[in-house]
Amino acid sequence: KTYVIHYVKVIVSQVRSSNDQEQSGSHTIVTIHDETRSRELEAMKVDFVSMAAHELRTPLAAISGYLELLKIKERENLQGENKRYVDQALISAKELGDLINNLLDVTRIEKGTLALHMEEVDLAASAHQAVQDAYFTAQKKNISLSYAGEENNCMVVGDEVALREIINNLLTNAIKYTENGGSIHVNFGKRGQTFAVSVKDTGYGIPKASLPNLFTKFYRVHGGLDSGSTGTGLGLYISKSIAERHGGTITVESQEGIGSTFTFIIPELTAARLDEMKQKQPGNLNVRRHRGWVTQNINR
């Protein structure tokens, strides 16, 4: 026998009339939607994005490599405008590489082929180091970047690179959307049995109507916030997905024209949690590391 899997959505609605009290019977409407085809199309789109992103990696690596080689070999001859052209080309190549990595991360999240490499991680040390690493980027825009709270010995269960990705993304967004001369404050603290990393900026702020969609794929805020931005609308979606895989959350509070505060919360380390999260890791599967994540059963 041949079996075909169908995906259906069932909606059950109770019908009430104005004289229900006089009627002894009840009325229910059952609506069944066959979503098999739409699911197949969605899977095809995910596969296409994954394939295209992988195919772009090889020529991009060659472009970046030749540019780096040109910069080294012609260091003495590259002056003025020519040097700026090469430097800008390298920056653009890196931005394209980041976009490709984000697209691949999204497809792996949606396919469920990512398994986090869980271990004991000092979240305070990671947060403090991330702020130090972002210092010079903030300095270029004359932005004051400060950190308050514990700097080490605050342990959680997680993938160290993935957790760092969340914090880096929040810092990058804060710097990108804060005008020259503004300020960003990162606060690390304990909240009950969790740790919280808050990134508060004095940037453009986010319109109230945009907040519900902020963590969805490819969503871009319209208005002052997207002026001059080269973002793809994937960073917050990826960060939220990673946070949820760690049993954590990301929330935002914002007021347009005043600034935003993004808060990442994750449970603290316990022996029981460590055992539980490690049990979810792949065993003797054929896996490989990718930017801190483990990718299962990857063909592309």
Describe this structure in words.
This protein has 300 residues and is of the alpha+beta class. It is 42% helix and 25% strand. It has helices at 36-73, 80-111, 123-140, 160-176, 235-245, 271-279, and strands spanning 8-15, 27-34, 114-116, 119-122, 144-149, 155-158, 183-191, 194-201, 249-255, 259-267, 287-290, 293-296. The strands form four sheets. Strands 5-7-8-10-9 form a five-stranded mixed β-sheet, with helices on one face. Strand 7 (183-191) and strand 8 form a beta hairpin. The longest helix has 38 residues, at 36-73. Mean pLDDT is 80; it is low at 284-290 and 292-300.
Q: Which structural class is indicated by helix and strand composition? A: alpha+beta
Question: Mean of residue pLDDT?
Answer: 80
- If you compute it from the alpha carbons, what radius of gyration comes out, rounded to the nearest whole angstrom? 24 Å
What percentage of amino acids are in beta strands? Answer: 15-25%
How would you sum up the global shape? globular
What summary fits the major beta sheet? 5 strands, mixed
